[in-house]
Amino acid sequence: MEEDKHAVAPVPPAMESERDVMIEQMRARIYRPKTARANAGMLVFFHGGGFVCGSIDSHEEAVKVLAHESGVVVCSVDYRLGPEHMFPAAIDDAVTAYAWARQHAAEFGADPKRVGVGGDSAGGNMSAVACHMCKQLELPQPSHQLLIYPAIDWSRSCESHKTFAKGFFLEDQRTHWFENRYLNRVEERDDPRASPMKFGDFSNLAPATIVTAGFDILRDEGAKYAAMLERGLLARVRRKRRLQARQVISRALRGAALRCACSQRARA
């Protein structure tokens, strides 16, 4: 994953400031772009990597582009990874990081009431689950959830898992490798905290922007989850039909999808 960071995003713009902080036992990096205004929104970002790989450094260039294009402060989180830390450690970290960001946003010139969550692949899963957990724990909802080709359902029942099972960036065999290093047992596939598609109630959640790639094994999961979210909130789906997953951050996210990442909460 570290060597792939140049494939994830173009050369990043310079930031106004970068600062490493500790959120309990997690390292995080706060990026404030030169495009940020006073009381900008903040996005808590969780990197992809199958809950096993990736880091702040692997996604740094993409996150800097995201911050610059959106004008929001980004808090990129080094959450716990498997197999050393199995499910639900990453989910617990996501909720902890979001709560911390709301408490400390003003220290970085951001509006505590406009803190969103987002991430790619596994990070999209974590962002989606964090919104459900906030509702269950009676915490304020994030201002937005930005789900970038999210991994939503461990059952692998969507058609894209068959269509793109082999020969593309993320292959079916690799998803099983990740699962064996993240979930403790196969029954956890049905735990909503692992597969947010399994949550029964999709009302009163943060509005969502979901970005999918046309040639990606996770494509149909994102579309199906968006349909579920539309029952109870505002959801936007952006699909780049000719792109594979790793190209999405550098192309599909430049524009409207980024600009609503930390918008004021809107309800359908």
Q: Provide a count of the helices.
A: 9
- List low-pLDDT spans: 2-9, 250-268
Return the domain count. Answer: 1
* Alpha carbon gap, first and last residue: 38 Å
- Using the 3D structure, state the CATH architecture: 3-Layer(aba) Sandwich
Gyration radius from CA atoms, angstroms: 17 Å
Tell the overall outline.
Answer: globular
Q: Mind describing the biggest β-sheet?
A: 8 strands, mixed
Which structural class should the secondary elements be placed in? alpha/beta
Which series of helices and strands comes N to C?
Answer: HEEEHEHEHEHHEHEHH
The CATH topology corresponds to Rossmann fold
CATH class value: Alpha Beta
Helix content: 25-40%
- Give me the count of strands: 8
CATH superfamily: Alpha/Beta hydrolase fold, catalytic domain
Give average pLDDT, whole number.
86
Strand order in space, largest sheet: 1-2-4-3-5-6-7-8
Beta-strand portion reads 15-25%
